Task: structure prediction
Amino acid sequence: MPPLDKGTISELTQLQRQRGFQYFAGLQIMLNRGQLRFATLADGAEQVRCWIITDDSRRNAQARRLDGLPWQALPGKPKAKTLTGSQAAWPIGASRIEKTDTILFTEGGPDLLAAATFAAFELKEPWETVCMIGAGLRIPEEALSLFADKTVFLFAHNDSAGIAAARRWHGQLTEAGAEVTALCSDTPGFDLNDALTAGETISFH
Result:
């Protein structure tokens, strides 16, 4: 794990604008909970500032360039880079959910931040956010027991991979004893971040 920091106000503002969020509060909550951090990482010969999703367990961490560009030195130039040593299938945020009943379950870092941005103003009950960092992953058996008796709102991407992932995770979480509600934008290709920035209405009822 590289040295992590909480970023500067200008970097948080840059991330807010990049993701299209109207409010700053969700990012601040993620900072306070240790699920959002910043770092300077190498992208080939270039040193770049990144935003990183992780949690206090440090079992998993994924970085994206703060300038919004893909990783230039990685094959295929992906948008996200899972940090070396990460347990990629571990749900980021799962280490926090023991004492909270309401869980917002997302796919990918942008939706993790989007869920917190939404919940900061729309949810009155205590909540936590959890993120899987790839649609092809399964929730590990040792993590599933943490979701027993939880109310889980699962935000699916409206594409074939996202819907397949949501169905897989829905089945796993339900078997583990969670009450799961899956939510998905009606717009093809949209994820939660897209839906929020487009002004779509999201309801838990």
Remarks:
- The longest strand covers residues 36-43.
- The chain has six helices and eight strands.
